[in-house]
Design brief:
Length: 219
């Protein structure tokens, strides 16, 4: 894929992280500083390649292949952000700008060595989840709702799509980006009882369990 094509997938994935799905073409054009007609042409090209699905008057969504590719690129970017901010002293904003260029040029094996060197971080300097490597079976999406986990699962929080009041409540209970927790029990509707590492048990409603996104921990 070209760098320009990759950037479209990244912008769509980042909008999805913020709860926007599908993503309007106008948003893509604004973020990428292109004319709407150019954005429309690129989306048609990506749709033909099987990376996105476009719904007229609504916007663009990622296919599984598109999510996988966007996840891979975001993993590259955010690991470089960690390196630039924590090891070279750049501010989070500066690190993001530089990483935006590096994400397209480094091979996957180089990035995985970088991850090991950094201690396999889960969150970027700006508090965004670092997607799991595509080589881990089942980790194809950027994240999955806690409500879909099985009892006994060990997971790490990768995103929280609630409002600020709910996020503050969860934070006080030990549920924040990068936090590890055990799923103790789960109901058929997704409501669950969890045990955050270093914190007491907490009962989450169906809605909240769907808003907390997690990554399965592997032995």
């Amino acid at each position: 894929m070209s760098e320009s094509e990759e950037m479209y997938l990244v912008i769509i994935a980042k909008a999805n992280e913020n709860g926007q799905d599908p993503v309007p073409l106008a948003h893509l054009a604004t973020e990428l500083k292109v004319q709407p007609v150019s954005a429309n042409q690129m989306i048609k090209k990506l749709e033909e390649a099987g990376k996105v699905v476009y719904t007229p008057y609504k916007g663009v969504g990622l296919t599984t292949a598109g999510k996988n590719e966007a996840s891979r690129i975001l993993r590259h970017r955010r690991l470089w952000e960690v390196f630039l901010a924590e090891r070279l002293g750049f501010s989070p904003t500066e690190a993001d700008e530089i990483a935006c260029r590096l994400e397209h040029v480094a091979e996957d094996d180089v990035v995985e060595r970088l991850s090991s060197y950094l201690g396999s971080p889960l969150v970027s300097p700006q508090g965004k989840p670092i997607p799991a490597p595509s080589s881990i079976e089942g980790e194809t999406d950027l994240d999955a709702p806690l409500a879909l986990c099985a009892a006994g699962a060990q997971v790490t929080i990768s995103a929280i799509k609630s409002g600020e009041a709910e996020k503050n409540f969860l934070r006080q209970a030990g549920l924040m980006l990068g936090a590890k927790l055990s799923v103790v029990a789960i109901q058929s509707n997704g409501a669950c009882l969890v045990k955050p590492e270093g914190h007491p048990f907490i009962q989450l409603s169906e809605q909240m369990a769907h808003e907390v996104r997690v990554r399965q921990d592997h032995p």
